[in-house]
Write a structure and sequence with these properties.
Leucine-rich repeat, LRR (right-handed beta-alpha superhelix); Leu-rich_rpt_typical-subtyp; two-stranded antiparallel ribbon; Volume-regulated anion channel subunit LRRC8C isoform X2; alpha/beta; repeat; 23 strands; transmembrane helix
């Protein structure tokens, strides 16, 4: 350090270039004293300020990567984004859509070409369109089968499961992230902090940089050295000055980027993200728009590479997910596995029953021998054109399983489907294609047929169901749907299972002139509806589970001259009128589960009766006129209070089933041997002490057909037992 010496007293002259006899330690002291007292603080602490500001910028930039509320979301998003980008399913889904859009463009081009042709060529063009459409359907099915065959080479089972797991992760992540905007708020705050910090640095640095001086003039107390003014040289000032200006430039560039970022945040709606462009490019039209933090993350990804968002969007599409599930479903449900589930149903048809599957396997349509397809609680059912392969399919049951049809599939079902059973939870779930099945013969509907606005049942017109013969409605109806009249002329069997709701209006019944069988079950009927008496072709009437207490109007049923079967079971009937004998054509009468205490003798003048069930009543005796029924084959008086049987009962020699269980009988007549056609005899639950040995003379009665207590069977003679055993 060089020193210019000024005398402390004015009378002294300034001495220059002379030795001042100062010790080296005095110079060191002056040097430190001047540095501490007279060097500007900015010049001293500039390097530390740079380090502190840099650390603040680093913390502000990376804070959301460390804060638990945001870092976890960012880490999960980056991980899922990378997996979605690299997933083979993304490439497969995009390529499939490209091929479909190519075919769509071809068809649209052909239509535009046809529309420009002159009118005289319209007929030929129409034929061309039909051929084009049929060829397109055929090529689609062929392409689909080829894709299924080559699926293993494109996407193996393991990759399919990984893609399925990705769909679940994306779905859960979206649900979680879309709920809040903490990422967006955090990013805005830290960007605002950096801009604020930038402005402070630029302002105070620009003001204080000139204070970095090379020569520093300092004042030292003269009693220390004998001199009071020293000019000190700050040897790092030049370097610090240049670095400060460079620092201003770097911070300026960084600050401009922060300002642009802040402008970008407020100028664009970063809390909403639309995949409109992706939908147009890929053709996947169900990709949803997103919001809040999820949208913000996708905007950030677009700043890096928009291709990530495009490939990620595939995993937001429900259509893409259903395609993947379909592929995995086909892997799991092979044709061999489906064939092992084929069973014979009550109609002796080969039936395939699928329960609670995530979709309908395409391999179902390889089981060409199936006659009845029953889908219960199967999700996302779309019946494709390949249903035409099921040439034997005649019955389709959809139980809580809404289904869509491709047009070729609808055309096939129109021509071949005979029976349709639908179970649904709301009226909106009834498919519109149901009303167009021209070959349908049986329709069974189970579910609410009323909407919230109207209490009356509303079914669309059934006019196109020209072949419909059987209509069954299991619902809560107050009146018969008006659309039933549309099929009045061809309908033969009509059933209503009303589940305890009172059915009030019956005027529509009069129009069912060709009805053969009518069932009104659980309709809370207190009397037999008068509209029934005008049904001249009626052969079977079932009024189960109503509130019938009297049937005085049963006489009017004689107008139904073809009535063969009458079921009045599960009611509260306490009395049967004598004029029931007017029903001359009656062959089956079921009045079980009522409150009858006696039977009218005139009942047994219905001489054509072959089936008579009076079980579960309060009968104490049977009229001797029961012997008039010489054609009787089935008679049940079980669960009554019968104490004795009329001998005339055993003159009904055509009896095959005689059910007398759970009564108070103490004796069984030996005339039971006259029942030569008896196959089943029930006497269990009575007070019998023994069975007559003549029971062994019933040639068709076997030991398995004899229902009695074990002790009664043990008391029978051995020859009788052997005879009954040999009969079996």
């Amino acid at each position: 350090m060089q020193t210019l010496v000024k005398p402390t007293k004015p009378i002294l002259q300034e001495v220059s270039g002379r030795k001042n006899n100062l010790d080296i330690h005095q110079y060191v002291f002056v040097n430190h004293y001047c540095y501490e007292r007279f060097v500007h603080w900015y010049a001293k602490y500039f390097p530390y300020l740079v380090v502190i500001h840099t650390m603040i910028f680093m913390v502000a930039s990376s804070f959301w990567f460390k804060f638990p509320g945001t870092s976890s979301k960012i880490d999960i998003f980056v991980t899922i984004l990378g997996k979605c980008f690299d997933s083979p399913w993304t490439t497969r889904a995009l390529s499939e859509v490209s091929e479909e859009r190519g075919e769509e463009k071809l068809v649209n081009w052909r239509r535009n070409t046809i529309s420009k042709d002159p009118p005289e060529r319209q007929a030929d063009d129409d034929e061309t369109v039909v051929l084009l459409r049929s060829a397109s359907v055929k090529s689609n099915s062929e392409k689909k089968s080829m894709e299924l065959q080559s699926a293993a080479s494109v996407l193996d089972k393991k990759e399919g499961e990984q893609a399925k797991a990705l769909f679940e992760k994306v779905k859960k992540f979206r649900t979680h992230v879309e709920e809040a905007d903490i990422l967006y708020v955090m990013y805005v705050l830290q960007t605002s902090l950096k801009v604020f910090k930038f402005l402070i640095i630029i302002i105070y640095t620009a003001v204080l940089v000139p204070n970095i001086e090379i020569v520093v003039r300092c004042y030292v107390p003269p009693e220390l050295t004998g001199f009071d003014i020293f000019c000190c040289n700050h040897n790092k000032a030049h370097l610090f000055s240049k670095l400060a200006y460079c620092y201003i430039c770097f911070v300026g560039v960084f600050g401009l980027l922060c300002i642009y970022t802040l402008y970008w945040q407020f100028h664009r709606p970063l809390k909403e993200y639309s995949f409109e462009q992706v939908r147009l490019e890929t053709g996947i039209n169900d990709i949803p728009d997103v919001k809040n933090d999820f949208a913000f993350l996708l905007h950030l990804v677009d700043q890096y590479d928009a291709l990530y968002s495009k490939r990620f969007a595939v995993f937001l599409s429900e259509v893409s997910e259903s395609h993947l599930y379909q592929l995995n479903l086909n892997y799991e449900w092979t044709a061999k596995k489906l064939r092992s589930r084929l069973t014979k149903n009550a109609k002796n048809q080969l039936e395939l029953h699928l329960l609670m599957l995530p979709g309908l396997p395409d391999t179902v349509f390889e089981i060409t021998e199936v006659e009845s397809l029953k889908l219960e609680q199967v999700k996302n059912v779309t019946i494709p054109a390949s249903v035409a392969k099921l040439e034997s399919l005649r019955e389709l049951s959809l139980i809580f399983c809404p289904a869509k049809l491709h047009l070729p599939a609808l055309n096939h079902l129109k021509a071949h489907l005979k029976v349709l059973c639908l179970d649904f939870e709301s009226l909106d779930e009834i498919p519109m294609w149901m009303y167009t099945l021209q070959s349908l013969e049986e329709l069974h509907l189970n579910g609410p047929l009323t909407n919230e606005l109207s209490k009356s049942a509303s079914l669309d017109s059934l006019r196109e169901l020209r072949a419909l013969r059987v209509l069954s409605l299991r619902s809560n109806l107050t009146k018969i749907p008006p659309s039933v009249v549309d099929v009045a002329l061809q309908l033969q069997h009509f059933c209503i299972y009303n589940e305890g709701v009172k059915l009030q209006a019956f005027s529509s019944l009069k129009k069912l002139t060709n009805i053969v069988s009518l069932e009104l079950v659980g309709c809370e009927l207190e009397r037999i509806p008068s509209a029934v008496f005008s049904l001249n072709n009626l052969q079977e009437l079932d009024l189960k589970e109503n509130k019938l207490s009297t049937v005085e109007e049963i006489l009017s049923l004689q107008h139904c001259r073809r009535l063969v079967t009458l079921k009045l079971w599960h009611n509260k009937i306490a009395y049967i009128p004598e004029h029931i004998s007017k029903l001359h054509t009656l062959e089956m009468l079921d009045i079980s589960w009522n409150k009858l205490r006696k039977l009218p003798s005139r009942l047994f003048y219905c001489t054509k009766l072959r089936h008579l069930d009076v079980s579960h009543n309060q009968l104490t005796s049977l009229p001797p006129e029961v012997g008039i029924l010489q054609g009787l084959q089935f008679f049940s008086a079980a669960f009554n209070s019968l104490e004795a049987l009329p001998e005339e009962l055993f003159s009904c020699k055509r009896l095959k089933t005689l059910a007398l269980g759970n009564n108070c009988l103490s004796y069984l007549s030996s005339r039971v041997s006259s029942l030569v056609q008896l196959v089943r005899l029930e006497v269990k639950g009575n007070r019998l002490e023994s069975l007559p040995v003549e029971i062994g003379e019933c040639p068709l009665l076997s030991l398995s057909g004899l229902i009695a207590e074990d002790n009664l069977l043990d008391l029978m003679p051995s020859d009788v037992r052997s005879r009954l055993t040999s009969s079996s």
